Amino acid sequence: MPKYSKKAQSKVKKVMHEYKEGKLKMGRSGKKVKSRKQAIAIGLSEARKKGAKVPPPKKRAKKR
After folding, report:
1. Helix ranges restricted to H, the chain
2. Which of 36, 1, 3 shows the shortest CA–CA distance to 19?
3. pLDDT attached to residue 35
4. Distance, first Cα to last Cα, the chain
5. Distance in angstroms (rounded) separating the CA atoms of residues 49 and 32
6. Which distant-in-sequence residues (6+ apart) come within 8 Å of 31 by Cβ?
7. According to the model, what pLDDT value does residue 56 have?
8. What is the Cα–Cα distance from 10 to 57, expressed in whole angstroms?
9. Is 70 exceeded by the pLDDT of residue 2?
10. 20/64 Cα distance (integer angstroms)
11. Backbone phi, then psi, for 32, in 5-degree steps?
12. Which tens digits make up the pLDDT trace of 19-61?
């Protein structure tokens, strides 16, 4: 059973292509994305906004 839907997989594929070309930018700051994990996270969040089947993002640990 796939973890993500076909729509989500294709979105991540497109984002990774942009990342490899060096054209992928972050949302508000507009800085160039440097890490592979960050590029995948951007693709999944865009897929979520489009309504694709993607599990919710993992919770971060709180800073104390």
Report:
1. 6-21, 36-50
2. 36
3. 94
4. 38
5. 21
6. 25
7. 81
8. 18
9. no
10. 36
11. -70, 135
12. 999 999 988 899 999 999 999 999 998 998 988 888 887 787 7
